Structures are given as structure tokens and as C-alpha cells.
Amino acid sequence: MRLHRLDITAFGPFGGSQTVDFDELSSAGLFLLHGPTGAGKTSVLDAVCYALYGSVPGVRQSGQGLTLRSDHAAAGTRTEVRLELTVAGRRLELTRQPPWARPKKRGTGSTLDKAQSWLREYDATAGVWKDLSRSHQEIGEEITQLLGMSREQFCQVVLLPQGEFARFLRSDAEARGKLLGRLFDTHRFAEVEKRLAERRRATEAQVRQGDAELLADAHRMQQAAGNAMELPDLAPGEPGLADEVLTAAAVARSTAREQLAIAHSGLTAAESAQAAADRTLADVRELARLQQRFTQASERAALMEERVEGYRQAQARMERARKAEAVAPALELRDAADHEHREAARAEARARDPLPETFAGAGAAGLAAAARRAAEELGGLESARRAEQRIAELAVERADLDRQERADEDVRQEAEAWLAEWDATRADLRTRIESAQEAANRADQLAVRREPAERRLGAARQRDQFAGDTEDAQRQVLALAESAVEARTHWLDLKEQRLNGIAAELAAHLTDGEPCAVCGASEHPAPARKSAEHVDRAAEEQALAAHQRTEEQRTEAERRLGVVREALAAATAEGGDTPTDQLADEFAELERLYEQARRDASWLHPATEELRRAEQEHERRTTVQQQAALRAASRTALRDTLDRERTSLEEELAHTRGTADSVATRAAQLERQAALLTDAAEAVRGAEDTAQRLKDADARLADAAFRAGFDTPQAAAAALLDDTAHRELQRRLDAWQSEEAAVRAVLAETDTAAAAQQPPADLDTAERTATAAVQRTREAASARDAAARRCAELDRLSARSAAGARQLAPLREEYDRVARLAALTAGTSADNERRMRLESYVLAARLEQVAAAATVRLQRMSSGRYTLVHSDDRAGRGRSGLGLHVVDAWTGRERDTATLSGGETFFASLALALGLADVVTDEAGGVRLDTLFIDEGFGSLDEQTLDEVLDVLDSLRERDRSVGIVSHVADLRRRIHAQLEVVKGRDGSAVRQRGH
Predict the structure, then answer these.
(1) Would you report the helix, strand and coil content of the chain in percent, each value rounded to 5?
(2) Range of weakest confidence among 227-241, 550-564, 631-645, 686-700
(3) Closest CA to 193 of 840, 831, 713
(4) Contacts of residue 756, Cβ cutoff 8 Å, sequence gap at least 6
(5) Strand 893-896 to strand 990-994: parallel, antiparallel, or no bridges (unpaired)?
(6) Do residues 86 and 99 lie in contact, with contact meaning Cβ atoms separated by under 8 Å?
(7) 21 Cβ neighbours under 8 A, 6+ residues apart
(8) What pLDDT is attached to residue 567?
(9) What is the arithmetic mean of pLDDT over 113-117?
């Protein structure tokens, strides 16, 4: 990689555009980059890094690239970096622009433009540049692939920071490992360590889980075996746990099977004993039953002998009841006839009570004849009743005519009164409609004038308000502009004071024996001292922040002033120059006239509707008046007809009703008299019939009792039994006979009589013996079942444990293998004697290559005295692999690099940096690095050593390289003729270039 040209615009401390011609500087092979502190030497290198990778090293990259813009740049100048270089035989041009908060084209304020990138390639055949890409991602991937290095590697290899390599020489193994890991990208080896550790933890967890399940099954087997099983004294994860569990399970299964055989023999013996006891108990129970049966039969026979007389009386009573059953029908018939005769006599007495005294002794025939005469007289009154009803109807009709006449008279008079006022009402409504129509037309005309007047009044009011706001905004802009100028002047004054005393500020951080950050010297004979007026960084940054705040406030105030002025112009164009009060009075008068016209016009629809309803009412009342006259004429003729009909009917009724108040009263009297006479005649005939039937029943009853053998009918009635008494008596007789037959049958049984001759049966003893035998059988069966369940459970758990152990075996083998590998790569295994991690092992190989490459140049710089060697010895209790020692040829001793002096440390770190650049270049695929930069440290060398170091750097030209040295050392300006000087000023920094 060779740099040709670098163009910088508004970047870092460079406010304008600056150009660096690396071809001219590189022609001498060695060039010097120098300038005062803070001028921007490092910013030149940052620009190269930004052009290649789109970012700058370290903490200087922040704020999404917004902080890369120069504070000295003009507001309309955009930050840009353009780099022309040759890499892998291709000439490329990279252009990058970071995000830019540019001023808005319209109005005030700013808008953010996105970052831009361009990649072009020079076509030597055509002699033109060709665009390749404008994608940030594509350009980044292309440059990383061509260079073969990340940004961090590029900053370490091409931009050699000597301070970091000096710390690298003095640091411990862990710090060296971090730097080398970034350079050689050994993250994949650390990932291997991490993956192996994670795999070891995962497999260990699975093995522990499997062992825990085996132990859980072992506990279940111990519980099933009745705690006769001994568990292994091992924890989950320990070797041999599965074999111990399976061995203990086998012993437990064998013991359980022996216990099952013993329990089965005990159950067989208990079942035989139970069968013998059951047979003995059955024989004793049968003997006890027969003895009890004979005893009960003897007791029942003695009891029947005592009750034989009652049985004979019951037989006699049953015989008399059977004879009386022949008289029962005659008794029932006589009782029914007697009951019917008494009811008929009571009905006759009730029917005669309402009759007059003249009918007290009359028989049934006389009463019936009187009833027929009353009915005949009632039939003659029917026509008179209809005449009386018609007279009532005529009275109702005459009353309806009178009511209709009065109603029609009221309607006629009301219609005449309303029609008399019709002409005046119609004229008034038509006048109101015409007035409302005129008001509606007037309201439309006023509405057309109202909206423009309202808009003009609103614009005038906004015009007055914006005029006041404009004056306030102008005063605020002037005040903020003055404050911004004062703040900027104050900041620049403080910055100039701080730059004048920057030597004292740097001297405050000097430590005896430590190299100076500016010149690299470890001795500080006369450090500068701070004056009483010294300004530190905090004060300068505080003033800068105040200046930036006032600038932002001024910009915001100017933006608000522009907005208010635009609004004022728009309001003035709309509202004109007429005073607001005058426009308000004109609009108020117009609004009053408009509202009045709208109120007047609102009567148009109601008045029109009212006229329509009035015309309909006029037509209706005229019709009603005519109809009332027609109905009055019709009622006069109908009234005369009704009067004539009523007179004729009243004459007929006076002759018919006699002394009664009315025909209806006379008819009611006759109807009641006929009904009473008819009921009385029927009651007399019924009483006579029931008396004859009672006499016949008495004769039949006397005859039946005599034939049945009873002296009187009353004796036969007393001998009768009802159904309940008859059933109860028959049941007692049947029970006596059944009991007598049963007792005789039992006493005649041979087995029962033989059992009665034997001694009493001992049932309690036999039952206790049988119960004890049953209990022993149940206990033996329970023991046998428990032993069988124990065997089955142990077989099931053993089979599951064996299956689990078989499944766990490959996993345990994998765990052992992964654990050995993880311990070996992590440096904790006993096989890893030097306790080197895998990443440290790889880095140790790289460090050994770097030390060999650095020794070639270190021997020349130190006149053959020093040699860098890699050491993999352990440091104390730490891990080994990244040790770095220096061999002193003068003493023949090997010592730590931390014992080198300041100057020795510089050229040793320089040799290490150059060696590292060679190794990383080879690692990156052999990409040539034709341009290198070395940052500071030359001030710590004496004149002879400086010459040797420069000779080594000058020898790099043999490999067609150019080396840029960044340093403050004045002697280098004399020794190196090709120079790039960075000059700082109040308006930003600039570069000056001198050729060889």
C-alpha cells in the first residue's frame, strides 16, 4: 500500500482545504511530520484512517462523525477527506464526507445531511477515473479485503504509536495478550475455549441430571425393599455411581424373590387350616340349628294348648256370621227405602211453605191445576211487555235528537263567528310573509359582505400582534448578537492564554525517570511553571461551551425573527392599513344588521305554514256549517213520527197492566206463582211413592230373618260382620290351623328329634376358631401380595435404572472427553505443564515471530548488543506463554524488557513495531506496506543512537518503503530534509510541505 495524495477540507483543526503530496514526500524515503503541540499532526493521520475505514482511532470518534468537523470552518463548507493510494496494484481514490448539520436553504436553522462515501479506480488504459461504489458497507468491505487488515491492525502497523509499544515491552502477559489478540484476530481461538467450556458445563449438567435420576430410582428401590437396600455413598457426577446403583439393585431383587417364596408357602398352609376350620364350624352350626328348632316347636305346642278355648269361640262366631249373610240384602234394601222416604217428606214440607193458606190441604192434582191457570195468564202479557220496551226506546231516541240539535247549534254558531273574521286574518298573514321574504333577501346580501369583513378584521388584529412581536424579536436578536460576540472574544482570549502557557500545563504531568510525552526525554532539568494568569483546559472548555450556547441562542432568535416578519407581511397584505378599531366597528354594525335580518327572515316559513293551515280551516268550517243545516231539517220530521208512536203505545199499556206498576212487575208475579205450584205438586207425589216402597221393604225383611233362623230382624243384623272384622276373624282361624300343622311336622322330624338327644352345641368356640383361621389366611395373603409387589417394583425400577445407565454411558464418555479438552485449552489440566491457554499458545507463536523479525533491526540499532527473545516461562503463579526478554550481548545475561532505559526502550519498541508490521503484513496475505508513520520518542536517544536508528529507518527504502516520522525533536529537522509542517493559527491550522 502506497499513499499518493491526501486532500482535507474542514476536518479537525483544518478550517479550510489542505493538500498533502505523499509522492513528493516519499521520494526521499524518509520524511518528517512536525509542528507545535495542538497544531494537528495526529489529525493528518486521522484523516488517512478516516478515508480508509470511515472512522478515526480511539475516543476521537464520537457523535456519529459530527465531531470531526472543524470549528474554524465556514458555515457553508462541508467536511471532506479525499485519499489517493495504490494497493494490490490498483490505484484507488476514496472520498468520505461525515454527517453535516448545514444551514437551511430557506429560513433559519440547520438540517442534517447524511454521510457520503465514494470509491473510484483509475483506468490507466483509458486514462480516466471509474466509479466503483457509493455504499459505505461495500467500500468498507473492499478496503478491508484489499489491505487484509482491520482498522485496529492498520493503526498499529501503519501508524506506529511508539507509546503503546513501550508499554507493550513493560506490560505483563495479560496486557500483551490483549494487544496481540486485536492485531492477529485470535478471537476464534478464544471462542474455541469458550465453546469447549460451555460444552463441558452442558454435558456435566446432563451427566449430573442423569446421575440424580439414578439416585432417585435407587431411593425408590430402597423404599420398595423396606430399607433393606444399601445406597452407594457417591454424589451425582462422581465416577462409578451407575455401577454401584445397579449392583445394589441386583442384591435387593434377589432378597425380594426369596421373601416371595417364603410368603407363598405360608399362604398355602394357612388356606388348608382355614378350610378345616370352616367345615367344623358348619357342622356345629347345623347341630345348634336343629336343637333350637326342636325347642321352639315344643314351646309353641304348649302355648297352643293354653289358647284352644278362644279358637272354639271364634269358630262359633264365624258360623253365625255366615247365616246372617243371607239376611243382609233385605236389611240393606229396607235401610235405603227408609232414608228415601224421610228425604221426600222434608222436600214436601219445603215446597208447601211459600204457598198461600188456600193451598195448604191441596193434593198433587189441585196444585198442578192452579199452576196451569197462572201460566195461561202470563202468556197474555207478552205483547204488553214489548210495547213497554218500545216506549223506553222511543224516549232514548227523542233525547238523542235533542242532544244532536244542541251540538249542531253550537258548531253552527262557532263557524259563523270564525268565518266573520276570515278576511282580516288572511290579509295579516300575507303581509307577514312579504316582510319575512324581504328580510331573507337582505340577510343574503349582508352575508356576502360579512365574511370578507371578518377575515380583514382578523388579519388586522394579527398584524398588530405580529408588529409587537417583531420589535421584541429584533431587540432580543441584537442582545444575543452582542452576547455571542463577547462570548467568542472571551473564549479566544482564554484559548490564546492557554496556548501561551501550554508548556507549563504539560510540565505539570512530568515525573522523574518517565519519558516526556513531547520530546521523549526522561530527564526534566527546567520544567516550565504556571503563572498566576494561567488558563487550564476546563476554563477554556467552559468558555467554548458558553460561546456555543450563545451562538445557538442567537441563531434560534434570528430564526424566530424571520418567522414573525413573514407572518407580519402576510397579515398586512390581508388586513391593509385601516385601523383595527375602525374595522371592528364596521364589522360589529354589519353583524348587527345581519343578525336582525336573519331573525326577521326566520318568520317566513312559520307564516307560510300558518296561512296554509288557515285556508284549510276556512274550507272545513264552511263545510261543517252546511252539514249542520241539513241535519236540523232531518231531525224535525223524525221527532214528529216518534211522538205519534209513543202516544199509541201508552194507551195500550194502561189497559193491560191493571193495578201493577208495570207489565214487567205483573209478569214477574205470575211467573213466580206458577213455579211454586209446580214444585209443590212434584214434592207431594214423591212423598207418596217413598211411603209405599218403605212398607214393602219391611215385609220382605221379616220374612228373610225367619227363614235364616233368627227370631227378629234385629238379631240377624247383630250377627253380621263387616269386611274388616270378617277378614281378621278368618286370619286368626287360618293362623291357628297353620301353626298347629307346623308344630306337628317339626316334632315328627327324625334329624331334629335325634339332635335334641345330643349335648348342646358349642357355637362360640367353633366361630372363634374359624375367625382366627381366616385372619391368619388374610395375613399370609397380604404378605404374599406385598412380596410380589416388591419384586415387581424392584424389577421395574431396576430395568429403568439399567436403561438410564445405558443411555448415560455415551454422555459420560463425551463429558470425560470434553472436560479433558476444555481443561487442556484453558490451561488448568495437569497435562498442560505450562498452564497456557489455547489463545495464549497461538499468540506465543505470533510473538515468537515478531521477536525474531524485531531482532534483525534491534541488533543494528543497538550495534549488535540486544536481541529480543520470546519466553514461555511462568511468571509467579500466573500462566506462561507471552513473556518477552532481551539478551544483552555485553553481559551474556537475559533480562526483562522492563529494565531497558528510556532510549533503549524507544529503539527496542521501534524495532518491535517494525517487526510486528512485517509479521502482520505477512499474516494479511503479503500486502506490501510502502508507507509507514512513526509517532514520537526520538527525543530520548543520544546522537549516536539516533544516527543508528535513522540508518535502520533509511534502510527501509531498500524495500521501496517511505517512512514518516512524527516528532518535535529539533535535530530531526536538520537531519531530515523532506518535511511536512503543520502550522496552527487563529483561523485554524495549515500544512506546509518541503521537498528533499
Answers:
(1) 70, 10, 20
(2) 227-241
(3) 840
(4) 290, 291, 294, 295
(5) unpaired
(6) no
(7) 4, 5, 993
(8) 79
(9) 88
Whether the CB-CB separation of 771 and 281 falls below 8 Å is answered with: no
C-alpha cell at 218: 435407587
3-state secondary structure 775-816: HHHHHHHHHHHHHHHHHHHHHHHHHHHHHHHHHHHHHHHHHH
Judged on CB neighbours under 10 Å (0-12, 13-18, 19+), 92 is: buried
The tens digit of pLDDT for each residue in 571-599 reads: 777 777 778 788 788 878 888 887 887 78
Q: Cell numbers for 772, please give them.
A: 382366627
DSSP 526: S
* For range 826-850, the mean pLDDT: 74
Which residues 6+ apart lie within 8 Å of 349 measured at CB?
none
Q: For 256-288, give the secondary structure using H, E and C.
A: HHHHHHHHHHHHHHHHHHHHHHHHHHHHHHHHH
C-alpha cell at 380: 197474555
State the Cα–Cα distance between residues 746 and 922, nearest whole angstrom.
Answer: 130
Contact at 8 Å (CB) between 870 and 840? no
What are the two backbone dihedrals, phi and then psi, of residue 524, each rounded to the nearest 5 degrees? Answer: -130, 80
The most distant pair of C-alpha atoms in the chain lies apart, rounded to whole Å, by 186
Angle CA(955)–CA(960)–CA(963) in degrees, nearest 5?
Answer: 65
Q: What's at 251, amino acid-wise?
A: V
Which long-range contacts does 770-773 make (Cβ < 8 Å, 24+ apart)?
770/274, 770/277, 770/278, 770/280, 770/281, 772/277, 773/270, 773/273, 773/274, 773/276, 773/277, 773/278
Grid coordinates belonging to 485? 460576540
623-635: pLDDT as tens digits = 887 887 787 777 7
Residue spans of beta strands (DSSP E) within 700-768: none
Q: Determine which helix (DSSP H) or strand (DSSP E) holds 883, and give its type and residue range.
A: strand 883-888
Report whether 164 contacts 935 (CB < 8 A). no
Residue type, 309: E
Classified as helix, coil or strand, 988 is coil
Q: What is the DSSP letter of 69?
A: B
Q: How far apart are CA 159 and CA 172, in angstroms?
A: 23
In this structure, what C-alpha cell is assigned to residue 948?
543508528
pLDDT at residue 51, as a whole number: 92
The one-letter amino acid at 763:
L
Per-residue b or e along 68-90, where b marks 16 or more CB atoms closer than 10 Å to that residue's CB: bbbebbeeebebbbbbbbbbeee
- Crossing angle (nearest 10°) for helices 663-708 and 382-420: 140
Strand 883-888, strand 866-871: pairing: antiparallel
Does residue 219 contact residue 793 with C-beta atoms inside 8 Å? Answer: no
β-partners of residue 677 are none
C-alpha 645/C-alpha 335 separation (Å) is: 68
Return d(Cα 846, Cα 182) in angstroms, integer: 12
Residue 5, classed as helix, strand or coil, is: strand
CA-to-CA dists, residue 380 to 375, 672, 952, angstroms: 9, 16, 171
Backbone angles phi, psi at 715, to 5 degrees: -65, -40
Burial 504-539 (b: 16+ CB within 10 A, else e): bbebeebeeeebbebbbbbebeeeeeeeeebbeeee
Contact present, 277 and 769 (Cβ < 8 Å):
yes
Q: Which residue type does 24 have? A: E
Q: Is residue 827 within 8 Å of 835, Cβ to Cβ?
A: yes
| Dihedral sign (CA 600, 605, 611, 614) | negative
Q: How far apart are the first and last CA of the chain?
A: 22
Residue 933's φ and ψ, nearest 5 degrees, are: -125, 135
Cross-strand partners of 994: 979
Residue with cell 195448604: 360
382 pLDDT tier (thresholds 50, 70, 90) = low
Strand order from edge to edge, sheet including 893-896: 866-871, 883-888, 893-896
Q: Taking a C-beta distance cutoff of 8 angstroms, is the pair 565, 477 a contact?
A: no
Angle (CA) 628 631 632, round 5°: 85
